[in-house]
Design brief:
elongated; mainly beta; single chain; 4-stranded antiparallel sheet
Length: 225
């Protein structure tokens, strides 16, 4: 009789009866209304990228960020700055002059770069007899049309002039025994003329008999002006 009365009460009460403890795993996405779960209902740090459904990434309507972490974009600065420094603090691309790799044969020469009074020329001389023996030589030489210019390269010349001999105008050079492979690179190259013309840095290389190509000289690099 008592059981029947309880059953009758439950059947007549309709929605006024509620289960106070839900069975484990009984609530899924189908039981949730749109918008039912708000950000205030989620503990900070409770939802991580690993707990998101497969194929769902942070940024697709979900923001996942560890507490105390500052977004990279905020740390890096705006598009006009890098690490908080203005773009004017960095060397502009138009201040860099590329010298794509090229090769020369015996007795050939080629102008590498010209700026103001300065001209830089690559030369290739093979099987040259010197006091120290027979050598192959790959060189880049600097010339100027202004007296009292200065240069710092393989040769240091604090008073570079138009009539200076080649040995005092060497920017970079390799000179191994004939037929021997050799290669040299250097960032030691600066030229300044009295009129203010500057080549601030020459980052160049020279090689001979390399790349499995004997009897050739190779050159390349870039200038910062």
């Amino acid at each position: 009789m008592v059981i029947a009365v309880i059953a009758l009460f439950v059947s007549m009460s309709g929605t006024t009866y509620a289960v106070t403890k839900l069975p484990r795993n009984s609530v899924g996405s189908s039981q949730l209304r749109p918008g039912a779960v708000r950000s205030s209902d989620i503990k900070n740090g409770a939802v991580t990228a690993r707990k998101l459904a497969k194929g769902l990434r942070p940024g697709q309507g979900v923001s996942v960020q560890a507490p105390g972490r500052v977004p990279y974009a905020d740390r890096a600065g705006s598009a006009d700055t890098l690490d908080g420094r203005d773009s004017s603090d960095f060397l502009a691309r138009d201040r860099i002059v590329d010298v794509p790799r090229f090769s020369l044969g015996d007795g050939q020469q080629r102008q590498v770069y010209q700026r103001g009074p300065f001209t830089l020329t690559a030369t290739c001389d093979l099987n040259v007899t010197t006091l120290s023996g027979v050598i192959d030589s790959a060189d880049i030489l600097v010339s100027t049309t202004q007296d009292h210019s200065v240069m710092d390269g393989f040769a240091l010349n604090p008073d570079l002039g138009p009539g200076d001999p080649p040995a005092e105008r060497v920017l970079i050079s390799v000179s191994p025994p004939d037929g021997v492979k050799d290669f040299e690179s250097s960032a030691d190259g600066t030229m300044v003329a009295p009129d203010g013309t500057e080549i601030r840095s020459a980052v160049l290389y020279a090689g001979v008999n390399i790349h499995n190509e004997p009897d050739k000289c190779f050159f390349g690099g870039f200038f910062m002006i």
